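Annex B, item 7. Sequence and structure tokens for protein A, then protein B.
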Amino acid sequence: MLTEMVRMLKNGETRSLQEIADILKTDISVVKAQLEYMENQGYIKKVALEISCSGKNCNACRRGSGVISMPVMWELKK
């Protein structure tokens, strides 16, 4: 399972936790545990992205804060 997850990360395609679980024929809790294990072992790192708006007061983002939280992503450490 870990080998397959590393292969998916090397591939660079974006997948949801549910998609990874479906591919690996397991559930999301197992995928989360494996990602946490690989992070703790230093194989991967969590990348949280935030996108700032242009400063216009459109209130389209989360409560008008000007910052849109993106999903957490994982990447292999070099």
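Protein B:
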Amino acid sequence: MNFADPVERLLFLQQLPLLRGLASHRVALLAEAAEECILQEGDSLIAEGDPRDSFFAAARGRYRLLFEGRPVWDAEAPVLLGLFEALADDRRTRIIALEPGLALRIPRAALRDLVEDAFDVVEHLLREAGEMLALQDWLEVSRLLATRPSVHRELPGGKNWNSFVARLSALRAAPVLRSFDFDSLGHLARRGVVAQLSPQTVWQSGDLGGHFYVVLEGRPPTGGILVGLLEALAEAPRFHDFVVEDGMTVMRFDRDMLFDVLEDHPTSAFALLSTFATLVIELFVARDHLRLHAAEELRDPGDR
């Protein structure tokens, strides 16, 4: 493989799952910014604590990801390495080469420029990431997370939710949306549909996600103020039932409407992609913790 040739770099990048399906001229921008890295056994692609200013597309070799010094994942080329960490600027991981390898180093800035100039890249990455995570037990991990005590934060009750200011304040309280710029939140506040949900099953586990809710009054069973966002972004099956027991006031947002707003606000689009990447990392870490806990449970008590 001759990575000195930009066409070779382009053809290779287009084979990788998270980039497959993007228009060639989009991927070409990443290929042009990429630099070839020849790696030896033990080399660090990413060091724990360093700024996440790049990610890697490995063409040859095997690699190990360590989280806070603990090995959690081995991967074999071809594979993207450090993409979610670069998007989220998460500095807790280290990636090392287990054998001689070859990779392309792609600056985070090149991806950010591409995301802010081409909204279809945001939509593609969100959908592809969701599908990839589903294949790696993302939905199962999400079910386990959903059984934990709710992180719900109550909003002040009794407000006039037809008020723009009240809706805007509710959106600013939602953790994932807090990173949006003020103009983006204003557009969402105007376009969200306020509704009353009577006691009912709104959706069941396995239903396809196409919309999400911001809960204004009432307590959802899982998810806090935001309910159903991840599945809506990825167009993935719901990972939990949403049952209203005592009535609830919500703002409903369709996925396409959210994307219309983000297309006009590239800074918020990149912020959402970064937040999504953070959630991916947290789910990955949670799965690793569950694996370690299960291993501890299987040990003979005399070995502890």
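Comment on protein B: Residues 144-156 have pLDDT under 50 and may be disordered.
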